[in-house]
Amino acid sequence: ATREDGTPQRPSFDDEFAELRAEMVRDQIEDRGVSDETVLEVMYRVPRHRFAPMVSAERAYQDSPQPIGHGQTISQPYVVAYMTERLELEADDRVLEVGTGSGYQAAILAEIVDEVVTIEIIRDLAESAAERLGRMGYRNITVLHGDGYYGHEARAPFDAIVVTAAASHTPPPLVAQLRPHGYMVIPVGRSGWIQNLLLVEKNADGEVSSRNLTSVRFVPLTGGH
Ligand code: SAM
């Protein structure tokens, strides 16, 4: 896709770690059942190591979360791929992410959809993610500093919402900002414990249902709510 001025909306990458990414996609993601070709392709394309500057590139491609500072993490590759697949994204979607962290999940989303809004509560992380994504060439991601519990009313409704921190309950403002036929994926449960990864669906009449997909372990959703 290109913007009106002819510059590409998304960057292209060429780096020495493509082989590590191919292994990551095959062994950690495809072998565990993620089958959406678009999701597999973008997980192969996006240079994850650039979002995890505190660890070596080799470690960035391992089957686990990695530290990004401020006690926060970039999520495990499989979890990013799995959550992305469950959103059933379309190319013209607008997606909200709560918990920008490194910006990696936002980049994965931005490779698939038109527009991504992502909110991060730790100012330093919001600023460094915005700077990193800008430097890498992403033009369709807006990084906001704030409490994502309240979503972002100004750009609502969203076709899909992904929350990458564990909440004690599904935030009503996020449900309100989800478009009919939209999916939200959110870990819900006690922080410091295993949480349920919920798939929340809003039907055409605005009725909301949710079901448990699997167990996950995320850092807590903080904030004043
Ligand atoms: N998606 C991130 C990535 O790709 O690197 C990983 C997210 S990390 C597991 C969770 C993030 O959620 C942390 O950066 C944390 O500061 C942020 N967070 C926690 N509570 C939040 C809130 N209420 N609003 C926005 N961000 C929040």
Give a description of the structure.
The chain has 225 residues and is an alpha/beta fold. The protein has one domain: Vaccinia Virus protein VP39 (Rossmann fold). The protein is 28% helix and 25% strand. The strands form two sheets. It has a seven-stranded mixed sheet. A hairpin with a 5-residue loop joins strand 8 and strand 9. The longest helix has 14 residues. The radius of gyration is 16 Å and the shape is globular. The structure holds S-adenosylmethionine. S-adenosylmethionine binds next to strand 2, helix 5 and strand 4.
Which CATH top level class fits? Alpha Beta
CA gyration radius, whole angstroms: 16 Å
- What's the story with the biggest beta sheet? 7 strands, mixed
How many domains make up the coordinates? 1
Helix content: 25-40%
Walk across the major sheet and give the strand order: 5-4-3-6-7-8-9
Keywords:
225 residues, alpha/beta, Rossmann fold, seven-stranded mixed beta sheet, 9 strands, globular, binds S-adenosylmethionine, transferase, signal, PCMT, cytoplasm, SAM-dependent_MTases_sf
